[in-house]
Design goal:
Layout (H helix, E strand, L loop, with lengths): L2 H13 L13 E6 L2 E7 L8 H8 L10 E4 L13 H7 L4 E4 L11 H8 L3 E3 L4 H7 L1 H9 L3 E8 L4 E3 L2 H5 L10 H13 L2 E4 L1 H7 L14 E5 L18 E5 L11 E5 L6 H11 L4 E6 L1 H10 L4 E6 L8 E2 L6 E8 L2 E7 L2
Parallel strand pairs: 3-4, 4-5, 6-12, 6-13, 8-9, 8-12, 9-10, 10-11
Antiparallel strand pairs: 1-2, 1-3, 7-14, 13-16, 15-16
Family: In the N-terminal section; belongs to the cytidine and deoxycytidylate deaminase family.
Protein name: Riboflavin biosynthesis protein RibD
Function: Converts 2,5-diamino-6-(ribosylamino)-4(3h)-pyrimidinone 5'-phosphate into 5-amino-6-(ribosylamino)-2,4(1h,3h)-pyrimidinedione 5'-phosphate.
């Protein structure tokens, strides 16, 4: 393996520590070496905190070594003032002579300007390195920047015979989640919730399951709860109004006469392309990723609109015999994994 690739891979590995906390900043990893020895590492702090380059430079105990160091970073250093000063300026101020960049940043405030600033200061810049691997790592950020919408993940669980829920009369006896998968799979879903910025469900799922949509069995930040409720039918005592996480209600009615703390309303035109409108609303809120967890109608609408990037599908071992059929979807299968007696398939929209 080439030396540059070795350390960019390490940057990608470090960057994953920022998943779920760095957004809307990209999760970036940074490694600083001297004579093929790592002297500092860092990744993007939670939003508003230092970037990866800053954390890596601060981790170097003997700052004099920086004048002969090579700095590796998975995404182009920023060149503008935002929540923090430009990373390119910090690199230059420490006299770091070489910078190796995995991927150019497409953000309009960066987009090559960081590289230009480094070159103008006499820094030797190598870019790109492992571009495709870095694009994969930054896929949420890049989808947001390049497509003007959040990265959309679809998630559902289906029975061995292809149903995602039993017949409605069975479920109506007691509104609660009907579990198809085991507790390990369900805990994995709670982990995923901490990694993304929003979670979306439709009216029927909210009414039938009364879900909390929070990461109760995993430590991490709760995502924005996004609930489609065209006619504002969901009772006010349901979990989505419990103030355990911020909630966005998508409706055609507008907010009711009384508002609930932590709950916002956004009006949509339900006669138009609903998935596209939802993506636009989330983009406006700087939401870079959303998990669509159901129900079948909502999932199907995103599939038919082609507005999905990744699908995570659990198949449980039991059969229901009848009920609500799982959505039909086609995509490139990335992986298959056994989670106890459940099968998890991950597809990418190719």
């Amino acid at each position: 393996m080439k030396i540059h690739e070795k350390y960019i891979l390490r940057c990608i590995e470090l960057a994953k520590n920022g998943l779920g906390t760095a957004a809307p900043n990209p999760m970036v990893g940074c490694v600083i070496t001297v004579d093929d020895q790592i002297i500092g590492e860092g990744f993007t702090s939670p939003y508003g905190g230092p970037h990866a380059e800053v954390n890596a430079i601060h981790a170097v105990s003997d700052k004099k070594q920086l004048k002969k160091a090579t700095l590796y970073v998975s995404l182009e250093p920023c060149s503008h003032y935002g929540k923090t000063p430009p990373c390119a300026d910090l690199i230059i101020s420490h006299g770091i002579p070489r910078v190796v960049i995995g991927l150019r940043d497409p953000h309009d405030k960066v987009d090559g300007k960081g590289i230009e600033k480094l070159l103008a200061a006499g820094v030797e810049v190598t870019c790109p390195v492992l571009e495709m691997e870095c694009r994969e790592d930054h896929r949420r950020f890049l989808t947001f920047q390049e497509k003007g919408r959040p990265y959309v993940l679809l998630k559902w669980a289906e029975s061995a015979d292809g149903y995602i829920a039993p017949k409605s009369d069975i479920r109506e006896k007691e509104p609660k989640p009907y579990w198809i998968t085991n507790r390990y799979s369900r805990q994995m879903v709670h982990q995923w919730r901490t990694e993304e910025q929003a979670i979306l469900v439709g009216t029927t799922t909210a009414m039938m399951d009364n879900p909390e949509l929070t990461p109760r069995t995993w430590v991490g930040k709760a995502p924005l709860r996004v609930v489609i409720d065209r006619k504002l039918k969901i009772p006010g005592n349901y979990h989505i109004y419990d103030n355990k996480a911020k909630t966005l209600i998508l409706t055609e009615e507008g907010p009711g006469p009384e508002t609930t703390p932590g709950v916002e309303y956004s009006t949509l035109d339900f006669s138009e392309n609903l998935p596209k409108q939802i993506c636009n609303r989330l983009y406006d809120r700087q939401v870079q990723s959303v998990i669509v967890e159901g129900g079948a109608k909502t999932l199907k609408s995103f599939i038919e609109a082609g507005l999905w990037d990744e699908a995570r599908i659990f198949k449980g071992p039991g059969s229901l015999g009848s009920g609500l059929k799982a959505p039909a979807i086609k995509g490139k299968e990335l992986s298959r994994e056994q989670i106890g007696n459940d099968l998890l398939r991950i597809l990418r929209n190719d």
